[in-house]
Design goal:
The protein is α+β, with helices and mostly antiparallel strands. The protein is 37% helix and 24% strand. The chain contains two helices and three strands, in the order H-E-E-H-E. It has a three-stranded mixed β-sheet with strand order 1-2-3. Strand 2, helix 2 and strand 3 form a beta-alpha-beta unit. Helix 1 runs antiparallel to helix 2. The longest helix has 17 residues. The termini are far apart. The relative contact order is 0.23.
Amino acid sequence: MSVQAEISSEPITPADLPLIEQVLAELRPMIHADGGELQLVEARGDTVVVRLGGKCMGCIQSGETLGGIRRRLMYTLGKAVRVIPAREE
């Protein structure tokens, strides 16, 4: 039986930024091991924008990577969040 975390619909606050950075720092070694890069671009409202680089660019599994980041952030923050890739201009 798995444990379900309480998830709120509260928006991301400035106090959440260190936790978001911590989660991304924990995930970076796994992404780097596959030749990828991960960078926080922005976090506000219910959305975290990340930049995936290196071998993650155009990778068919990048959607899975974003989903894994989202699940980890929701568990850590206890908030419903969306994780989307930064738009390259």
